Amino acid sequence: MNLSIDHKNPLPLHIQAENLLRSMIKDPQYAGGKFLPNEVQLAKQLAISRSTLRHALNKLVYEGLLTRKKGVGTKVAETAISSKSKNWLSFTQEMTARGIVIKNFELHVTWVLPDETIANFFEISPAKKVLKLERLRGKAEGPFVYFISYFHPRIGLTGEEDFKRPLYDILEKDYMAIATLSKEEISAKTADKFIASKLELEIGSPILLRKRFVYDQGERPVEYNLGYYRADSFVYTVESRRE
């Protein structure tokens, strides 16, 4: 890509620099989270002052198109994964519908004793073990969500299932447990040591916690799900219509 601006053009230099940066953001050479050239080098190459270049950079940072980290550099912001509250699907189905290829980085299945919150949700004894499914998932570039799911023993899961398949497809086709209702809670949190290590973040970094409570057609509890998302990689949209 030709990195230059026209100094004979009457268009202000900071506007030309901004337009160039917008073109760089779309270029495969820089798109998808790649770093831009060093600020000093770029300003020198464009024959403009650093303050003029910084004026353009700051505008695109404000718009969320670029991200800047002191001592590291400026890079193109990765497109945030979007999820809607309307017509909910399993995570795999949801991402497939958006043309996003999902990679499983980790998958763990264990039988555990539920804590008080989970036992109360399932209306079972704390002495009754439940299946716990943990999955670290994301795009090829890296993980952006860590899921922890607990399932009601009534379903009959064994732990031997192929959990690379869409989750609700397994529940419905293999166990006749049809998930029809989802209630969700979204909250802002900071990453503890465990989640930070999974999502490749610094401890204390902002994350989104998405709790999903899933019920079958008889409104019986099926799944208790916790999703820990990188805050820089996930957007949750709510669509409401006034009747």
Automatic annotation (TrEMBL):
<keyword id="KW-0238">DNA-binding</keyword>
<dbReference type="Pfam" id="PF07702">
    <property type="entry name" value="UTRA"/>
</dbReference>
<feature type="domain" description="HTH gntR-type">
    <location>
        <begin position="11"/>
        <end position="79"/>
    </location>
</feature>
<dbReference type="Pfam" id="PF00392">
    <property type="entry name" value="GntR"/>
</dbReference>
<dbReference type="InterPro" id="IPR028978">
    <property type="entry name" value="Chorismate_lyase_/UTRA_dom_sf"/>
</dbReference>
<dbReference type="InterPro" id="IPR036390">
    <property type="entry name" value="WH_DNA-bd_sf"/>
</dbReference>
<dbReference type="InterPro" id="IPR036388">
    <property type="entry name" value="WH-like_DNA-bd_sf"/>
</dbReference>
<dbReference type="InterPro" id="IPR000524">
    <property type="entry name" value="Tscrpt_reg_HTH_GntR"/>
</dbReference>
<protein>
    <submittedName>
        <fullName>GntR family transcriptional regulator</fullName>
    </submittedName>
</protein>
<dbReference type="InterPro" id="IPR050679">
    <property type="entry name" value="Bact_HTH_transcr_reg"/>
</dbReference>
<keyword id="KW-0804">Transcription</keyword>
<dbReference type="InterPro" id="IPR011663">
    <property type="entry name" value="UTRA"/>
</dbReference>
<keyword id="KW-0805">Transcription regulation</keyword>
